[in-house]
């Protein structure tokens, strides 16, 4: 998984007055949990642009001004209800030998047979919750929908991997091909069109 570096300043004062002063200066107050101690820091709001305003997921290296570097993942973020400015971010420290839980974006590959015949691909999940070592987690989870006919579904078990554990029930549907007008008839015609070709091949082999 890709990692972003955020250059930050460790902060000692964590009261309301100090926090307000940081925000007025264009800084975002943050905290990192999960290590031996809780770490409070701040960084310019623009430093979080590629972490927050993207569909991608990343791990983070928080590079503090005292030379300390902490590996972490974003846990929670608070926005201003009117301006949408970032008010506060919580991170969780990660370790090479400890599994983490993340939601990984899902992406389809292939061209669904059912969609070619007029069906519509509907998504139940856009992100898949998984658990594994940070080094083993992918940037995106892909699922092949080429063979999905109208009425068929792609389940989380279809994208399982030895690199991580999927934290959804096995019967969870990621996406499915739903019917639309004339779609069923078109797919039936395509299947009927395949049958003679298969029979002709059989007859040729017998001859």
From TrEMBL:
Recorded GO cellular component terms are: cytosolic large ribosomal subunit
One Pfam assignment? Ribosomal_TL5_C
- Annotated Large ribosomal subunit protein bL25 beta domain residues: 100-180
* Organism expressing this protein natively: Aquimarina spongiae
Protein name (record): Large ribosomal subunit protein bL25
* MF annotations from Gene Ontology: 5S rRNA binding; structural constituent of ribosome
Subunit structure of this entry?
Part of the 50S ribosomal subunit; part of the 5S rRNA/L5/L18/L25 subcomplex. Contacts the 5S rRNA. Binds to the 5S rRNA independently of L5 and L18.
Keywords of the record, alphabetical order, are: Ribonucleoprotein, Ribosomal protein, RNA-binding, rRNA-binding
Superkingdom classification of source: Bacteria
Against InterPro entries, the record matches this protein to: Rbsml_bL25/Gln-tRNA_synth_N, Ribosomal_bL25/Gln-tRNA_synth, Ribosomal_bL25_b-dom, Ribosomal_bL25_C, Ribosomal_bL25_long, Ribosomal_L25_dom, Ribosomal_uL5_bac-type
What does this protein do, in the record's words? This is one of the proteins that binds to the 5S RNA in the ribosome where it forms part of the central protuberance.
Which CDD domains does the annotation name?
Ribosomal_L25_TL5_CTC (cd00495)
Region named Disordered:
182-207
Where the record annotates domain Large ribosomal subunit protein bL25 L25, the positions are: 6-91
Instruction: Please give the family membership noted in the entry.
Output: Belongs to the bacterial ribosomal protein bL25 family. CTC subfamily.
Q: Name one GO biological process term.
A: translation
């Amino acid at each position: 998984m890709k990692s972003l570096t955020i250059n930050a300043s460790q902060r000692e004062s964590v009261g309301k007055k100090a926090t307000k002063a940081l925000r007025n200066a264009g800084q975002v107050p943050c905290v990192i949990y999960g290590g031996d101690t809780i770490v409070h820091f701040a960084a310019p709001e623009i430093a979080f642009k590629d972490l927050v305003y993207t569909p991608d997921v990343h791990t983070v290296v928080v590079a503090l001004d005292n030379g300390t570097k902490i590996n972490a993942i974003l846990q929670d973020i608070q926005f201003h209800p009117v301006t949408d400015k970032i008010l506060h971010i919580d991170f969780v420290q990660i370790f090479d030998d400890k599994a983490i839980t993340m939601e990984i974006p899902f992406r389809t590959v292939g061209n669904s047979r059912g969609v070619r015949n007029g069906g519509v691909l509907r998504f139940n999940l856009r992100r898949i919750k998984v658990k594994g070592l940070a080094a083993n987690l992918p940037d995106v989870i892909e699922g092949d929908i080429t063979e999905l006919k109208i009425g068929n579904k792609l389940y989380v078990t279809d994208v399982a991997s030895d690199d991580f554990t999927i934290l959804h029930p096995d019967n969870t549907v990621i996406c499915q091909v739903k019917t639309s007008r004339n779609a069923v008839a078109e797919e039936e015609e395509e299947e009927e069109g395949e049958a003679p070709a298969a029979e002709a091949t059989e007859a040729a082999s017998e001859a």
